[in-house]
Amino acid sequence: MTTKKSFIATRLRNYFLTGLIICAPIAITAWLVRSFIEWADGWVKPYLPNFYNPDTYSPVAIPGFGLLVAIVVITLVGFLTANLVGRSIVNFGESLVNRTPLVRTIYKSTKQIFQTVLQEQSSSFKKAGLIEYPSPGLWALVFIATDVKGEIAAKFDDRGMDMVTVFLPPTPIPTAGFLLFVPRDKIIPLDMSAEDAAKLLISGGLVVPDHKPLANAPLKIGQQKTA
Q1: Main-chain dihedrals φ then ψ at residue 181, nearest 5 degrees
Q2: How far is 66 from 46, CA to CA, in rounded Å?
Q3: What DSSP letter does each residue of 146-200 carry, written as one string?
């Protein structure tokens, strides 16, 4: 009897774990999607006139309408900016922002980040690698951002150092982290995509992507320096 009860308990536990493996990712994904939609709606809907807000005519809030409006407005701005008149308006607006202390610093920094990350040919944050951190013999997963540029690059060049900018994210939330400048030859580039590297980080090393070896090649990021 004891053996039979143990068998039943084991089967029930296995069924529960199997169901948890199936349901948990679905529930977490649904929660994240819902949270993002509610966040977008919370930003956009308060600025909509009541006449255009469907919540005015509905007894319940319609989720996703604010997100849809945001997508349409962003696309429309991109369309208008593509022509001369729209570009002139944007340039005029930017000239006003650039005359405003503090605001211009935040605006310029944010714009440069989006331009760098969203450029079609940009390889920023599209590669992952390994560096020795925080001490020799210990290795950390990083996202490779870009070649070091500007004054920092000039200082390193004076010392004959070829450096790369990397982002070291924490586990399990890789949205915060550390900006590091690492010698190019001290980085071990990985074949896995940035998405797979993010999964590895978020899961705390539990979700390991399949290894698909690529041809060995030196680490290259965008335009290489010329002598």
Answers
A1: -110, 115
A2: 9
A3: EE--HHHHHHHHHTT--EEEEEE--SS-TTS-EEEEEEGGG-EEEEEEHHHHHHH
Q: How far apart are CA 15 and CA 10, in angstroms?
A: 9
In whole angstroms, give the CA distance from residue 224 to residue 16. Answer: 54
How far apart (Å, rounded) are the C-alpha atoms in residues 101 and 92?
17
User: Among candidates 44, 48, 46, which has minimal Cα distance to 36?
Assistant: 44
Contact present, 160 and 153 (Cβ < 8 Å): no
Write the pLDDT tens digit of every residue in 79-118: 888 777 777 887 888 888 888 888 888 888 887 777 666 6
The span from the CA of 24 to the CA of 41, in Å, is 25
pLDDT for 188: 93
Angstrom distance (rounded) from CA 189 to CA 112: 25
Q: Quick one: angle between helices 65-81 and 84-97, nearest 10?
A: 110
Cα 103 from chain centre:
24
Preceding peptide of 54 cis, ω within 30° = no
pLDDT recorded at residue 114: 73
Model pLDDT, residue 218: 57
Query: Which residues in the chain come in under a pLDDT of 70?
Result: 1-2, 115-124, 174, 213-227
For the stretch 51-84, pLDDT in tens is 888 888 888 788 888 889 999 988 888 888 877 7
Question: Which SS3 state, helix, strand or coil, does residue 222 take?
Answer: coil
